[in-house]
Amino acid sequence: MNDFYTEEQKDIARWAKALGHPVRVYIIQLLSKQSCCYSGDLAEELPIARSTLSQHLKELKGSGLIQGKIRPPKIKYCLNKENWAKAKILFSNLLDI
To answer: Is residue 45 part of a domain?
Structure first.
């Protein structure tokens, strides 16, 4: 059954799921306005618990929309520009209107 779906369909579904929460959309928009951001700075920006923020970052990173580099004691997050370029094309072609 997994062979029924194309890799592009799987990518769209994975990215759509990752964007399925307003906090994650906010994080993406924030990262798109700057080159990178540390997790501590995000925690100060958002009115949520650090553990909740960590889960949202984990979901976005797992989807490949963002990437993180550990710089003890912080983690630096940036958009994954390669995947965003692909996502822009796939989402714009999704409905093929």
So the answer is: yes
Classify each residue of 2-40 as buried b or exposed e, where b means 16 or more C-beta atoms within 10 Å of its C-beta.
eeeeeeeeebbebbeebbeeebbeebbeebeeeeebebe
Tens-digit pLDDT profile for residues 18-70: 999 999 999 999 999 998 999 889 999 899 999 999 999 999 999 999 999 98
Count how many Cα atoms sit within 13 Å of the Cα of residue 69 in the half-sphere of its side chain: 7
State the residue range of the domain holding 15.
2-90
Backbone φ and ψ of 66, nearest 5°: -130, 165
Tell me the Ramachandran region of residue 60: left when phi exceeds 0, alpha when psi lies from -120 to 50, beta otherwise.
Answer: alpha
State how many domains the chain has.
1
Q: Whose structure tokens read 């983690």? A: 75
The length of the chain is 97
Considering only CA atoms, which of 97, 96, 84 is closest in space to residue 11?
84
